[in-house]
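Lab manual, section 2.4: Encoding a predicted structure.

Procedure: take the sequence of the chain (110 residues), apply the prediction step described in section 2.3, and record the output as C-alpha cells. A sample record is shown.
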Amino acid sequence: YDKALEMREKALQIYLATLGEEHPDTATTYHNMGNVFTSKSDNGKALEMYDKALKIFKATLGEDHFLTTSTLRTMGVAYGRMGKSEKDVRSGYFLAKVKAKKAEWSAAFE
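Recorded output:
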C-alpha cells in the first residue's frame, strides 16, 4: 500500500500544479488516496481524503453527480469501519444510491 500511496501523492502534486485544487481530477486523486488509507485500515485519514474529494466534487460537479454520491458512499463505509452503527452506514449508502439514480434518470430525460 505504501507504493500505491506514494504514486497517488505524486499524481496529486502534479494535478495541484497543473489543474489546481478545485478540479475533478484532483478530487479523484484525493478519493483514490482515501481508498488506499481505507485498505490500510487508517479510516481517519481515509475520511480526511474523502472529505476533500467530496467538497471539490460538490463545488465542481454538483450534489447529484455520480462521483459526489460515490464519495458519500465510500465515506459511509469508512464510518462503518470506525464503529458507526450499521443503520447509519446503510442510510448513507442508500441516500447516495438514490441521488445517483435520480441524477441518472434526470440526464436520460433531458
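Check your result against the sample. The CA atoms of residues 58 and 68 lie 6 Å apart.
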